[in-house]
Amino acid sequence: MRLVTSNEIKMLDQRAIKDFGINSLILMERAGISTIEVMWNEFKNLEKYSYAVFCGPGNNGGDGLVIARELLNYTEAVKVILMSEKLTSEATTNLNIFKSLGGEVIKLSDDNILEVVDIIKSSDIIIDAIFGVGLSKNVVGIYAEIINFINLYSNYTVSVDIPSGISADTGKILGTAIRSDLTVTFEFPKIGHILFPGREFSGKLKVVKIGIPKVLQDLNPCDKILLTKDYFNIPKRFKESNKGTYGKVVIIGGSKDYIGAPVLSSIAAIRSGAGKVLLFSTEKSATVALNHELGIIPIAISKDYFDKSHINLILPYIDEKTSVVIGPGIGRNPSTEEFIVELLKSINSPAVIDADAIYLLRNHKNILSEKKNIIITPHPGELSNFLELDIDSVKYNYKLVKETAEKYNLLLVLKDVTTIISDGEKIFFNVTGNTSLSKGGSGDILSGLIGGFLAQSSNVLESSLAAVYILGIASELYEYEGYNLITEILNNIPKVIAEVKE
Ligand SMILES: NC(=O)C1=CN([C@@H]2O[C@H](COP(=O)(O)OP(=O)(O)OC[C@H]3O[C@@H](n4cnc5c(N)ncnc54)[C@H](OP(=O)(O)O)[C@@H]3O)[C@@H](O)[C@H]2O)[C@@H](O)CC1
Ligand SMILES: [K+]
């Protein structure tokens, strides 16, 4: 599903209005009525509840006034709190209709704040129509006070389009923001619903159509996409096949300090359906690997860390049909830097670069640019190291993810609660997964899974999308969120693959 920024949705709204004569009041009407439909689906008997509708100065407030008017058809217990003297003409039209139906309007001022707080406390449902995608600066003053009171006292809050105070473009809080139970957004989710804290503040998110013509959407191709299973294929299985059909994965990782990481990657690669998995690692990791899965072919180095002397050991095993995963548990020994650089120069296979291998390549970005089919899978800390930027300017920075992918000719997977994936053209946002993945080993599973799909398809984008999406669902299947062994998530992968394939 397409994701939009505030400018993109405003442009689509404007073109619907100007090019097709679907005037603004029509769109507002659909926005309001669709919100009521969602509420009806959630609560059923709308007549049982009392409502306070907070309306801001823009068209978000106008939507609120449509909602308030429609609620009068269910109950008289509807109060509109007008937050501003200034209203748009569409909002004014809807305010007049509401008033002509006998609706109660309270104009917020410094003098009646306490009365309004009582209304918040005594209403069953608060409708937040204060700011939508037109929020342009930090929320301060009386707006901020009311938002904070709503967060403190509301029994249940429904946000119209986006929780007021959340930036539609970044998901960040501008000053203060409504913490919603339910958000009804129009036409497409906004980036602010998908990135934290906006994702959390939105509560349950529902997307409704308000009649933006499809031709307009087709004319304006999107580059930001909410990842679903429609965007990738799982490599096929063939009745007549053998291990050669499903590719070979070479996993290079492990060091004196990390033993389990490359083993997890190797098992994940096997779970992806890959035909053959070779693990180059330390002797300890090789032993652990065989203790867990006899299908892994371990080849042990006799040292604590990889160095240049290991290149000739590995190269004969890598050919065009191989995918390579470098990095799980590989450590930061200076000798390993030279090893990785030389190895990458010598191979042409698609490769996943993970963990400390990303760190060790920070001064060799040109090597990555020169190669095709390279995937890097940093978390925000690793990407901030790699790009020498502070972590805040990296976290959830989808534009940076796209720019970096384009600049260095990479497929970049920025792992986080919302994972962002870009090939330099499109940006995918993944929202599957939960805190069962917030523990050591989940990154190793991811890189192995990508490498495994890559060995079967050599499509860097689809392999990455599939792995990120599937690992997320595998964590959601675990019954006791957060109290899992990481191998339990690994073992859920086949079930998820089967479901995704259906
Ligand atoms: N026809 C359409 O386009 C449709 C739009 N629809 C609905 O309208 C919403 C977008 O409407 P919108 O563009 O009027 O913006 P909205 O979010 O209501 O707020 C803008 C107002 O707030 C003000 N303001 C901003 N920040 C502020 C702050 N921190 N503190 C104080 N004030 C602040 C800002 O002032 P300004 O920045 O201009 O000074 C302006 O007055 C959209 O989310 C959807 O719900 C649907 O009905 C479908 C059709
Ligand atoms: K809102």
From TrEMBL:
Domain YjeF N-terminal, chain residue ranges per copy: 9-218
Record's cofactor remark: Binds 1 potassium ion per subunit.
Pfam family, one: YjeF_N
Annotated residues for binding of AMP: 415-419, 443
Record field: catalytic activity: (6S)-NADHX + ADP = AMP + phosphate + NADH + H(+); (6R)-NADPHX = (6S)-NADPHX; (6R)-NADHX = (6S)-NADHX; (6S)-NADPHX + ADP = AMP + phosphate + NADPH + H(+)
Domain of life: Bacteria
GO biological processes: metabolite repair; nicotinamide nucleotide metabolic process
UniProt protein name: Bifunctional NAD(P)H-hydrate repair enzyme
Organism: Thermosipho africanus (strain TCF52B)
